[in-house]
Specification:
Two copies of one chain form a homodimer. Chain A is α+β, with helices and mostly antiparallel strands and 237 residues long. Helix content of chain A is 23%, strand content 25%. Chain A is built from six helices and twelve strands. Chain A is globular.
Chain lengths: 237, 237
């Protein structure tokens, strides 16, 4: 059995907040647990917050704002390495980390009622490692965010940072129950863990951390950047 | 708390197998549970199996086989409505259902050691409804398969069929904890449930069903086809 447990009762995240210690205070963590931490509180703890009032939009940001707040568009552009698509007031952007998502991960929700935006952590793998270090017990840590995806409706949570285990499990060459060797089976464990935690996270429920117990991670030095597929290897694009 | 429970001890699926009754015999189901059933046993129960020896490949299948078994390529082509991309021995195909996946969901693993391939169920939403009907108790049912995706490495489980609840939860207009109305938040619940079950399914572990307890589904007449984004609405493409 695998258990998904909401972690409640943590203080409001502020810049410099020791999230790992707070999590360890809020829930009884056991060795082998995996903790999924919502990006929003990590960004807040790392001071990755920008007040709209402090931003002067560029001419380009004004041009493409299409009725949106040009200051917000400016923030999105600053977080963008490549615009994948731009239409109907949405910017699908590739971030400096290589993630492809709406508005480069810039988000007004759950900050202060719309006056400030959060940005993705600069190095979410390092964020996860720092949180794991603060916890002390040997756990896996994932930083998750909610992304749209091609071809399918709706958002799912994915791993944008991680520490303490392998991002994927490579089953290629293993025999199935009938002795047939599996061909192309590399499982995105970190993303499945993030998606499972997404069942616990509800945008309005103030549960920013999910503890997952009972899933045996594959050991290895995993990074969420391992989950970013190089463009030249991506048959799906 | 949400629990993910492996359902073990079911007989080997054969054409005509009453999967819902078998599941109800194998595990104590409670009202409000969600059952995720791996596509493979649904395809077997529905006789969606083709022996390679019974297939004569077309000239085109031979041309594009690139060292693979042309009979398998022929089966893939028969399941394909549109070839999205074809390279290095992989066909990314859109199926008749509208799903975009490798080899149109045709798969040699976990059948009979490579002599036969399974095809996706013809109507996986109907498959889920039938299984739910056989169970009797009011449960959600998902048929899941393991898909690759653009931009990210590794496979995740997604819902290809479902019954008994809404595929997505629309949070647009709800206020966050700071009173800010959420903008674009439609959560793909069925896919997150399928991904969570993917933590229980391991290709070689012979666990074809996962029971999820403790997740409050959104009520509504959901279909996995609701998760297929119409091409003209898909900014990510």
């Amino acid at each position: 059995m695998i258990q998904l447990l909401p972690v409640r009762g943590m203080p409001e995240a502020v810049p410099g907040a020791p999230l790992g210690r707070w999590i360890a205070d809020a829930v009884a963590i056991e060795q082998g647990d995996t903790l999924v931490v919502a990006q929003k509180i990590v960004s807040k703890a790392e001071g990755r917050i920008v007040k709209l009032a402090d931003v002067t939009p560029s001419e380009f940001a004004r041009q493409i704002a299409e009725g949106r707040d040009a200051r917000l568009v400016e923030i999105v552009l600053r977080e963008t390495r490549r615009i994948v698509r731009m239409d109907r007031g949405v910017i699908i952007a590739e971030t400096a980390h290589g993630f492809v998502c709406a508005n480069a991960g810039v988000d007004l929700s759950n900050v202060d009622g719309g006056a400030s935006a959060t940005l993705l952590p600069l190095d979410p793998d390092a964020s996860a490692a720092r949180i794991a270090g603060e916890i002390g017990v040997a756990v896996g840590v994932i930083i998750s965010d909610t992304f749209g995806r091609p071809w399918r409706e709706g958002l799912v949570d994915v791993a944008i940072g991680m520490h303490g285990f392998a991002a994927t499990t490579d089953c290629r060459g293993q025999a199935d129950s009938y002795g047939y060797p599996l061909q192309a089976t590399i499982l995105a464990d970190a993303d499945q863990l993030a998606a499972a935690a997404g069942l616990i996270f509800r945008k309005t429920a103030r549960v920013p951390v999910c503890l997952i117990r009972g899933f045996s991670v594959t050991s290895g030095p995993g990074k969420a950047r391992d989950l970013v597929r190089p463009r030249d290897k991506d048959l799906f694009r």
